Amino acid sequence: MIETPDAEPEYDDTAIRFLEALWGDGYLSPGGPDEVDRIVEGVALNGKSILDIGCGSGGITLHLLERHGAAHVTGFDVERPVIEAARQRAAARGLSDRANFVQTPPGPLPFTDASFDVVFSKDALLHVSDKDALFAEIFRILKPGGVFAASNWMISHDGEPSPDMKVYVAAEGLSFAMASPARYAAAMRRAGFADVTVQDRNPWYREVAREELSRLKGPLYPTVAAAVGAAYVDKNIRTWEAMQKVLDSGEHRPTHLRGRKPVG
Fold first, then answer.
1. pLDDT band at residue 8 using 50, 70 and 90 as cut-offs
2. Which intervals hold domain Polyketide synthase-like methyltransferase (predicted)?
């Protein structure tokens, strides 16, 4: 969910090719299907209607159908290139009848009240600056008793970012609106969510990112450079080096979130 609808896409075809080379076919965030499974662990998805906010190029949306037996999954994103890629992926796998993809500009979610059993999101909510409005919308479209399960990139505090964090965010060049886990949890509770839980994933991603950087500098470099150009890979190596600093310091806090919409 990117808040720059009139600008050039932040996740264009080059970005999609690069990230999928690093993270897997259909995945624009780290951890692949294993991390998706961790986010939804213990949530009953079989036969359920799910919304995937910030669905990217559709790998997660289809995984929720194929691995978890969802009845129907709607992938939602504000950027056209990723939605087009997701639709093509669903058609190629014969899943267009159970997966649909919606692309609209930022703003209120284009779904009616109490539409979904589960709302899922992976590393997309950091692009939305108004966390209170975001969770009010997620709460609205969940059915009573429905579950919100997500991961997101966060900052460890809500004060002035460190110089290293500013360097990292500038290197990403994306519309990051990072906030602390405490701020996210408070916004969820204000929206009405119960059983709000927060799980720190910094120790996991700190090591995974180190391996990603090693692969980018080593065995992946020739293949990815051939696909997107050496200059693009070199830029992202510098971004990963900046990210590693704030992961190691603990200021960059990938985090899982979970909450439930009460019944009645």
1. low
2. 18-218
Spatial distance between the Cα atoms of 13 and 33, rounded to a whole number of angstroms: 22
Distant-in-sequence, close-in-space partners of 15: CB < 8 Å, separation ≥ 6: 28
The tokens 């290197």 sit on which residue?
171
Report the C-alpha gap between 166 and 240 in whole angstroms.
14
Question: Which residue, 122, 107, 108, is CA-closest to 6?
Answer: 107
Angle subtended at Cα 44 by Cα 183 and Cα 35, rounded to the nearest 5 degrees: 60
Q: Which two tokens stand for residue 255?
A: 């985090």
Both tokens of 254, joined, read 């990938």
Share of the chain above pLDDT 90, in %: 83
Longest Cα–Cα distance in the chain: 56
Q: Which helix (H) or strand (E) holds 256?
A: strand 252-260
Q: SS3 for 77?
A: strand
Q: How far, CA to CA in Å, does 42 sit from each of 70, 122, 197? A: 14, 17, 13
Name the DSSP letter for residue 57: T
| Cα–Cα distance measured from residue 58 to residue 137, given in angstroms and rounded to the nearest whole number | 22
187: confidence class by pLDDT, cuts 50, 70, 90: very high
User: At 80, which helix (H) or strand (E)?
Assistant: helix 80-92
CA distance 221 to 250: 28
Specify the pairing of strand 99-103 against strand 142-155: unpaired
Q: Coil, strand or helix: which one is 18?
A: helix
Confidence of residue 184 (pLDDT cuts 50, 70, 90): very high
The pLDDT value given to residue 9: 66
Which pair of tokens denotes residue 246?
A: 């704030």
Name 152's bridge partners: 255
